[in-house]
Specification:
By secondary structure, this protein is of the alpha+beta class. Helix content is 20%, strand content 28%. The chain is built from three helices and six strands; from the N terminus they run ββαββββαα. A six-stranded antiparallel sheet has the order 1-2-4-5-6-3, with helices on one face. The model has no long low-confidence stretch (mean pLDDT 93). It binds ligand 3VV. The site of ligand 3VV has 25 residues, from helix 1, strand 3, strand 6 and helix 3. Keywords: Apoptosis, Cell membrane, Cell projection, Cytoplasm, Fatty acid metabolism, Hydrolase, Lipid metabolism, Membrane, Transit peptide. It is found in: Cell projection, Ruffle membrane; Cytoplasm; Membrane.
């Protein structure tokens, strides 16, 4: 089987249109939710990923592999790397389009081992939009922006309404989360 996967995006798409209030290039994004396993400061063994807007279509994220992230001794667990890319891709969609969206599909190619202590530099870009679907892809390079590629990922995120979170998640926590974001002028468009 060829290593090169099928066409991407897998259907005709429109170019993604960044939200007019998307943060400008160079903005450090910080955590989006303190309990998020990907970026939350309150999750001790979480990934503590930090992301920055690189352009109106791209976000760069950094993830340093810790000892809690191992699969084989001294090496990152593959599923955990997939999680890091879910975060980096989700942050790209969420922050550039400013609409709640959830991962529907996530593909990962593991190209090189990722040792504990190394930092993945993940560059993610919006590839296209079709109705509620946003296609996004990323490359993760070892220890430098121009380091060797270790992981590639592609994802499909589907825009959802706020009821997705209130119905299926913790409605009280969602309400508090929205209050915090609104107070910071960071509310989301919630009507896809
Ligand atoms: C006020 C609160 C706001 C909060 C906002 C926070 C933003 C934060 C910003 C930034 C940081 C973010 C960082 C986080 C990153 C991590 C994100 C995650 O890990 S999310 C958790 C894991 N994912 C799930 O739990 C989804 C579970 N799945 C579902 O809920 C549904 O399946 C859902 C919503 C994905 C789709 O269900 P349907 O009923 O709404 O819609 P249907 O019609 O089934 O799909 C829509 C289109 O998508 C295609 N589709 C759906 N799933 C597909 C798949 N697996 N593969 C291919 N296509 C798929 C369908 O074929 C359809 O396409 P056609 O429009 O007809 O062409």
């Amino acid at each position: 089987m060829s290593k090169a996967a099928e066409n991407w995006p897998p259907e005709d798409t429109e170019p993604a249109t960044p939200h007019p209030d998307a943060p400008p290039s160079g903005t450090e994004l910080g955590e989006h939710y303190s309990q998020c396993f990907g970026c939350g400061d309150d999750v001790e063994s979480g990934l503590h990923i930090r992301s920055m807007i690189a352009s109106d279509m791209t976000v760069v994220s950094k993830f340093t592999v810790g000892k809690d992230h191992q699969g084989a001794p001294g090496l990152a667990h593959g599923g955990l790397l997939a999680c890091a890319f879910d975060e980096a891709l989700g942050s790209t969609v969420g922050n550039l389009l400013r609409r709640p969206a959830v991962t529907a599909r996530l593909e990962t190619d593991f190209v090189r081992p990722v040792p504990v202590g190394s930092t993945l530099h993940i560059a993610a870009k919006l590839d296209g939009v079709s109705r509620r679907k946003t296609y996004v892809s990323a490359e993760g390079r070892l220890d430098a922006e121009d380091g060797p590629v270790a992981v590639r990922a592609r994802g499909l995120f589907v825009t959802v309404g706020v009821e997705h979170f209130t119905k299926h998640g913790d409605a009280d926590a969602i309400s508090q989360f929205r209050d915090v974001r609104q107070a910071a002028g960071q509310d989301w468009d919630i009507n896809p």
